[in-house]
Amino acid sequence: MGFAHPGPQGPQRLPLTRVDPHTTDPVSTMPFDFAQVLIFMLVAIGFVLVALTLSRLVAPRVLNADKGEIYECGERPIGDAWFNFNPRFYIIALVFVVFDVEVALTFPIAVVFKAWKEQGAGLIALAELLVFLVILAAGLAYVWKKRDLEWIKTVTGGPWAAANQSQKGPARRAAWEPR
Amino acid sequence: MSISLPALEPLLPGLLLVGVAILLLMYEVFAGQADRTYAAHLAVVGLGLSMFLSLKAVGTPRALLFGTDLANAPLIVDDFARVASALVAAAGLVAALLSPSYAKNAGHDHGEYYGLILFAVVGMMIMSMAGDLMTFFLGLETMSIAVYALTGLRAHDPRSTEAALKYFLMGAFATGFLLFGIALVYGATASVSLATLATFKAGSPLLTLGIALILIGFAFKVAAVPFHMWAPDVYEGAPTPVTGFMAVGVKAAAFIALLRLVHSGLGVSAQTDSTWIPILSALAVLTILVGNVLALVQQNVKRMLAYSSVSHAGYLLIGVVAAARGEASAGSAIIFYLTSYTFMTLGAFGVLTFLERKEGGPESERYGAFAGIGFRHPALGMAMSLFMVALAGMPPTGGFFGKLYLFTAAIRAEETWLALVGIAGSLISVYYYLRVIVAFYMREVPEPGPTPTATRSAQLTLGVALAAFFVLQLGLFPAPLLALTKSAMLSLGL
Amino acid sequence: MSPAIPVENYLYLAIVLFSIGAAGVLIRRNAIVVFMCIELMLNAANLVLISFARHHADPAGHIYVLLVMAVAAAEVAVGLAIMIAMFRERKSIHVDDLRDMHG
Question: Is the complex ipTM higher than 0.90?
């Protein structure tokens, strides 16, 4: 935050921009670069069209019940394709998503760390990173202790566990089961 | 650019709350006790301390954090931010006091509850300090995400989960508009800073569209008509103390951020594009009329309060229009109104919490359920009458002065017709507020009659008493708060 | 990203994405799909931020995108949790089933 306006507007390049060494003027050569992609696309579409037309013309047509089935690698399909995934997946997913994406925030520090270190501010950068990681770790400890990392959640308290005390073994129930 | 450890001392009120919140979370999971009243006490102490620290610092010079001037500092701790922080901390404090017995009755007595309230308050504080739109966005999301979770805490009540999902989807939708608006403003000005935004002149369609989208996002957050559809359902379904917290805290934080945006970013000198001011006026009129008329026809008191809170957002929008017209007193009127509104609304929801039945449900929220309460529980009846009178804007309460200052500011800004609409709305509102008092005192007491006070507790009593005290205090001696709000607005450069 | 593509094109693409997302929120009835549409809106904003960050040669814009992504992830977590709670209660996450309260 706090970067001055660069001046007159217009396309400006960051220093990191890669310029193709074979061309000097990217603007005039761009249509030709795109022409390659266009030809590739046309060939691909043409290939599909030719293959489909050929098979329609040449292939024998024998219709039976097996052929009308949904193709599932040769197996007979079981059940409907539209079903609810086990909600346990969502719990795992939401824990994963948070930690996965929050880690993305640490990458910028990795990029500038060396420059900061040379300016004598390495410790501050490290401390900031550590504060962030400690907070994330606290979250992980919380989830772990709450047993949401287990596929089958072991319930130690509450009425559910009490009802199961008479039976042998600890009360176990899936994390997704309605209480 | 030299990098050094910034002086974090001005952020102490917020950092303190973060510390208490993490402590609560960790204590809950590693050494949890069955009774979470301790968590409420800890949260109340933390919020009280944070409020004290904020108010103590009022009058000291402005502090810029992580930057050197207004154009690059993401956090600006000035008197405006300090007064606002104290206000939202007070809202959290009263809400935390209302909660323990209700949570026990409703079966959501988690220690995390108070942690979430603290995180939400921290988000509101960041919103009030934000010197650029991105920081404002981060504060808004910190607050919103915590409040989404709070709304759905009664996980075994279909009304609560429904409210949470509705609030979440509509809130995230609003976030989308807000963020896209911020991105467009960034595109137009090459910065998200409010001070830089103020230097840009009208004319760029990118900038106009960006500001429009940001204002739509705000309208969603404060439940201004026609972006109010979610509010009644969410307010009805959420746990009652959370409804109170949401009605006052979210609204206060959003209006305070809007005030800073209008003053520091959009340039009240009309240097920037001001076509949005008439649109805001139209929103205010619609919000007041629709909110009040729909509140009239409700049979459920909690829902009536939800619509009434929509109409209060309309009155506050009048203040924002006046502020945008350059009227210096409008800002302090808004802060005064928000403060008195905080206490009277939390008080009203506190009384509703008191009257929650053991089994909960919408039945205990109908007008009919309150027949004769005024005689059976005289103190409760008096308190509710006070809050209703205050919400209707009658003396001798803080609500009266709040409306007086707000409408005076509108008239000074030559928006007399807006003030007239506001007064008309207030007159309509008298009917449905008095209807509650009528239910309390003038309906026959059903015999033998249930005693609907499953949630009585010392904390709840203290919360309602505090709210009642401040509503009266602001009505009888408004000068100290007015001085505070004036110094807050002075720190914005007015 | 070739420097020859003007920033307006990214802006138009982002506006199209944003509109698709907003329309999806209003049209779709499955809460998870609605939420995916909202994510599309957020990512449209990210696209604007990142393309203008380059256009203005301002690295701050890149950081904003990371911040937005982190915030969106936190939002996903809470949103999914709310949807699980809803599914446990009603065995459905269709927004049309959200009609216990009205008026």
Answer: yes
